[in-house]
Each structure stands twice: as C-alpha cells, then as structure tokens.
Design a protein that fits this description.
Helix content is about 65%, strand content about 0%. By secondary structure, the protein is an all-alpha fold.
C-alpha cells in the first residue's frame, strides 16, 4: 500500500514542513514534485492553513511551471487569497486560471463558478459582464445539482443587479429547483453532488427573486 500521508498533512509545523521537503527532494520528476505540493496545499487549504498553502502553490509555479496543472494551481491560489480577504489578488488569480484553461482546455476547474459567486455575492457590479462572459465560456452541461445551483444563482443575482427582473426570476427558479433535488441521478451514488449547506440569507433572496418580490 502506498504511503501518501507525507503529502497529506493536516498540520504545518516546522517539523512537518522539514519532513515534507525532505521527502519531496527524493521525488525524481518535476511532475510528481508539482503534484505532491499541490495536493499538500489542498490539504492545508481545507484546514484553514491558507498562507502555508499559498507558499506551496507559489513554489510550484516558480520551480516546476511546465509540469504543473496551471489552471488548478491558479484556482487554488485564488480560493486561498479570497479566504485571506485579498480579493483583488484573488480576482487576478482567477483570471490567470482562465488563461491557463484556454491554453490547456483539457484541464477543467470550477474557477468560473467560484469567480462568479464572488462577483455576484460580494457584489462587484463592475465585473458583472465579465462574470457572465466567463460562465458562458467555461460552463459545460453538468450532472451535479450543486453546479447547476451555483450557476443559476450567480446569474439570478447578477441579472437582478443589472435590473433585468425577468432573467433574474428564471434563473432563481432554476437555482431553487436544483437546490431541492434529493437524488443525484446516479443509482449507486444518490447523494453525489446534491446542494448542501446553503445559508438562509441566500435561500431567502432566491425565493424573493423567483417570486418577483426583490
């Protein structure tokens, strides 16, 4: 059995960091080094160690840029920056992710949804048109209700902000329909990709938009 615990650490003490890099130096290829760093950055991101995660992501792009899945790296970077409150830098990282996807279209990310959500909910009215263009460019049919929900909710909020109540209403209805789905459509994984944990304020806002009361 492969031991992956060394690049899936949930803490990042000086001892953790030293042990990680000691093992990383034994990795033979740039591809594997970039992958191990990105996976470790993801683990740290999930436990709120955003600065440590950013350090690893920046190392990947500095040392092994040609071996990295650049769109995924920039997407992760954007998420970490957003969590740290550095939203201007996060927006630029999202844009870098989009540029990387254009150059390597086989690498898919959900950066278009995360960028759109930031723009729609913060909100950033000056970026509304850009967010809509990005959704149109990168969105593909998804079997997952959560992705349908996020796309529709983003568009409901943005079109409401732009004053188009009818488009907003239609997208709000679609978002609520996706949110209420109780089966993924996958026989063996009925809960896969369902919408969970939507905050009450978002639900209430979508209900108002869907009924034309906003």
């Amino acid at each position: 059995m492969v031991d992956d615990s060394w690049f899936r650490r949930k803490t990042w003490t000086q001892e953790d960091e030293a042990a990680f890099f000691s093992r990383l130096r034994r990795s033979r290829t740039a591809f594997h080094k970039a992958q191990y760093c990105r996976i470790q950055a993801c683990e740290l991101q999930m436990v709120g160690e955003y600065r440590a995660a950013l350090g690893l992501l920046e190392l990947v792009m500095r040392e092994w840029p040609e071996a990295a899945q650049r769109a995924a790296v920039y997407h992760q970077k954007a998420e970490c920056l957003e969590k740290l409150g550095q939203e201007a830098a996060a927006i630029e990282a999202y844009r870098a992710a989009f540029d990387a996807q254009r150059k390597q279209p086989t690498y898919k990310t959900a950066a278009h949804l995360d960028f759109g959500w930031l723009v729609a909910t913060r909100p950033y009215p000056a970026l509304y048109d850009e967010a809509l263009r990005i959704l149109e460019e990168f969105e593909t049919p998804s079997p997952f209700p959560v992705e349908e929900f996020r796309s529709a909710a983003i568009q409901a909020f943005i079109w409401n902000g732009k004053g188009d109540r009818e488009r907003s209403r239609r997208h709000a209805e679609a978002a609520l329909a996706a949110m209420r789905r109780t089966h993924s459509g996958f026989a063996r994984h009925p809960d896969l990709g369902l919408v969970e944990g939507v905050d009450l304020n978002t639900c209430e806002q979508l209900e108002r938009l869907a009924t034309g009361k906003e």
